[in-house]
Amino acid sequence: MERREGANPQTEWQVGGDAAELYERYHVPAIVGPWAADLVGLSPPRSGDRVLDVACGTGVVARLVAQHAAAPAKVVGLDLNARMIAVARSLPPGPGAPVEWQEGSALAMPFADGSFDLVLCQQGLQFFPDRPTALREMHRVLVPGGRMALSVWRPIQFKPFHAALADALTRHVGPQAAAPLHAACSLGNAEELLALVTGAGFRDVAIRPATKIHRVGPPDEFVRGWLAGSPMAEAVARADDGTRAALVRDVTGALLPYIHAGDLAFPMEAHIAMARAPAGAA
Question: Distance between CA 49 and CA 13 in Å, rounded?
Answer without folding.
Answer: 42
